[in-house]
Write a structure and sequence with these properties.
The complex is a heterodimer of chains A (about 110) and B (about 110).
Chain A lengths: L4 E3 L2 E4 L5 E6 L6 E8 L3 E9 L14 E5 L5 E5 L8 E8 L8 E2 L3 E5 L1
Parallel strand pairs in A: 2-10
Antiparallel strand pairs in A: 1-3, 3-7, 4-5, 4-8, 6-7, 8-9, 8-10
Chain B lengths: L3 E4 L2 E5 L4 E7 L4 E9 L5 E8 L4 E4 L2 E6 L4 E6 L8 E9 L6 E2 L3 E6 L1
Parallel strand pairs in B: 2-11
Antiparallel strand pairs in B: 1-3, 3-8, 4-5, 4-9, 6-7, 7-8, 9-10, 9-11
The chains are: A mainly beta (about 110), B mainly beta (about 110).
């Protein structure tokens, strides 16, 4: 497809389980971002990948959160030992060369922790 | 720390009306400012991006202005249509050009 693709679109899991969220950016886009959108906090930056550089992880809320980007394309956000406060919509975006350009968003993964 | 505020939080207007959405930010050292729309259950769609050196950008019925010194941006929507109903978010990229800080959005409803 032409846009940013995220999977799964919805995920329900029990507290304490680990989850993996996937993002396929637009082909050729070198920059990839993860954000979290929750009712109480609005839209928050989590992590940013640019090419082969070390990612900017400054937005990750705890060490239970990690992300990787393989081959400069697909990215996976992993949340270990999920807590109820992790419930949110996780959005991925990509841009062609970097932060100075428009970011294109996927439809997100709605994560619910029971 | 950059803070971005959007007023009003919600707005309802009849079809055909022109309207203005407001965005203010506390740190004027920005790289660019972007306006997005978000439909329910969907991701964000980029509408306009204004670089820090620019004063405005236009796309169709949309016009966004930027006054960096006063920390303000406005999104003007001309001749509103029911299809414009969505949440509109502004986001600021800092001068270090790393990550966006988002406002809390304005929920717009355009009625027939």
């Amino acid at each position: 497809g032409a846009g940013v693709s995220q999977s799964p679109s919805n995920k329900v899991t029990e507290k304490g389980k680990d989850v993996e969220l996937r993002c396929d950016p637009i082909s050729g886009h070198t920059a990839l971002y993860w954000y979290r959108q929750s009712l109480g906090q609005g839209l928050e930056f989590l992590i940013y990948f640019q090419g082969n550089s070390a990612p900017d992880k400054s937005g990750l809320p705890s060490d239970r959160f990690s992300a990787e980007r393989t081959g400069g394309s697909v990215s996976t956000l992993t949340i270990q030992r999920t807590q109820q406060e992790d419930s949110a919509v996780y959005l991925c975006a990509s841009s062609l060369r970097g932060p100075g350009e428009p970011q294109h968003f996927g439809d997100g993964t709605r994560l619910s922790i029971l | 720390k950059q803070e971005v505020t959007q007023i009003p939080a919600a707005l309802s207007v009849p079809e055909g009306e022109n309207l203005v959405l407001n965005c203010s930010f506390t740190d004027s050292a920005i790289y660019n400012l972007q306006w997005f729309r978000q439909d329910p259950g969907k991701g964000l769609t980029s509408l306009l991006l204004i670089q820090s050196s620019q004063r405005e950008q236009t796309s169709g019925r949309l016009n966004a202005s930027l006054d960096k010194s006063s920390g303000r941006s406005t999104l003007y929507i001309a001749a509103s249509q029911p299809g414009d109903s969505a949440t509109y978010l502004c986001a600021v990229m800092p001068g270090t050009a790393s990550k966006l800080t988002f406002g809390t959005g304005t929920r717009l409803q355009v009625t027939l």
